Queue: 2 jobs
Job 1
Amino acid sequence: MSNKEEKPAEQNQSTWKDFIYNPRSGEFMGRTASSWALILLFYLVFYGFLAGLFTLTMWVMLQTLDDYTPKYRDRVSNPGLVIRPREMDIFFNRSDPLNYRQYVQHLESFLQQYNDTEQDKNVVCTPGVYFDQDDMETQKKVCQFKRSSLGLCSGLPDTTFGYAEGKPCVLVKMNRIIGLKPRGSPFINCTAKKENSLQMNYFPVEGKFDLMYFPYYGKKAHENYVQPLVAVKLNLTGSDYNKELSVECKIEGSDLRNDDERDKFLGRVTFRVKVTE
């Protein structure tokens, strides 16, 4: 009885051994060496053809692209506004330097590229005129925008950007859009949602984005380009302290849109400020 029970196991083991390698037919896993060679050759040719076709397709597509200007742009044609420091809620105690240090450090770090010593390397442009450049120039020149033009919000006369006195500075800039040429004389206008109007100072004067900083030619062509800035100094008084104020800044004076309800940052930006003593 024991011999009959052991035969099926021995037969199964023999079958598996023959499947892996059959010494009688010379087959390995059901195929002879020539059969394996033919099938491997087929897949080598097949996948080689697919790889070649993919490479050719990519090469043809890349020939249609410009290294300096995107062929297709899915961004909006009007710029959005952003602020620095990069916070929508600017809450701090003016009596505690540690409390507003993060805002000051962020502004100082951001303005390093606008240092006068860095901007002296760039070109002095004609105000009020678009700085159009020859298409043949692969590296475009950059107009100077010196940090010192931001006056009291430059961090030079006051290293705390007004935060120590409870009159903080906020920097407003437009997002970059290749080829943008705003018509008119774009400027920033900020309003606070409160009963009494909030006094503000703008730097440069009147909060204008000069046309000489347009158009922008793209990151590769305009490698050292820096966006023009408008600094807004919020002249808070004692009655404004310990209150949460909502401030909205818009682009005015041009054809740039600032009233799209579907995009709250298109041509405008809203942030909140609360200063405690």
Job 2
Amino acid sequence: MEKKLSLKELMTSYRRWVINNPSFVTDVETVATWSSYFIAGKINKSPIVSELVYALSKLLSLFNDKIINDAYGNNSSQFSLQEQIKLWLTIVHYCEVFVELAVKYKCGTRGKWTAAIIIQMFKCSSALVLLFRFKDIPIQHPPIPALQRKKFTETVESEENRDAFFTLKRSGRVVRRVEGAPPISLRDWQPIKVEDNSIPSAIEIRDLKHAELIHIFKPIVHLAAMKLFGAKSWKQWLIALGLDVASFHLYNKHMNEISYEQRLEISRRKLSLVLYLLRSPMYNSYSKRVIENFLESTSSKIPAMSFICQPIIQYLNHWQDIYFYMWAM
């Protein structure tokens, strides 16, 4: 009679499988994520089921990233308050649309807006802790980004060879140790590349804190504006856009003083301004007609594109109603 594996043994086997097959695990996660888009409109209660599949696939990816991270010995700060806040913010980021849809299905529109307010209050208060206590500027979206697994493992392996060289005190020149040199057949005779881990001083600049504060409070301000002026009023749309522009204006003053990762996050936020075209009332007044005409024209000129354009036209209004809230970070 075969012995049943315990839960601990199953988890150990799963961790070993993830560590040994990171590329295949990534492919499985990608298929699971994309399947959530194909479910939409195909089954009963498809929006809720689609968002549930998406949330579960992203949470699985987050869990697998942690397994790979821990396997390479990079788990020293996983229990810190900062990492725990980022973890919960990331979980909320992946699950908030599903929670809103599920609450709306059970409790109606009033329940949906109550859930949205609670979620945004949690995100706002958590972001304030990251900003003022840990000087996290700007806060990433999501706070724990997906792990670039191949690049991460290569970086860890290169860091293991860090003791293979030393730096001369006077000239600052990096010199390889004799015992740290690779075999002659593998030498490329190139200068040693040392990663620059210097911390940018821009973290203390007051303008950056003000810019991030505007970004953090924008969802709360926008929800209040929607309550006052209505969900399809131009006033609430312009208030949100004005807050984004003000935040970018403060950041632009110090773009040359911040790190590459900080500039990358700010650039991502700037690109998200395109989504204002898909948000009410801009979408209802102008964008909807332009987008639909473009998709219909494309599908008629290129027959193969009809398989992509027609579903988008069919579900565009539905997706716009679900996803394009201005308070999403």
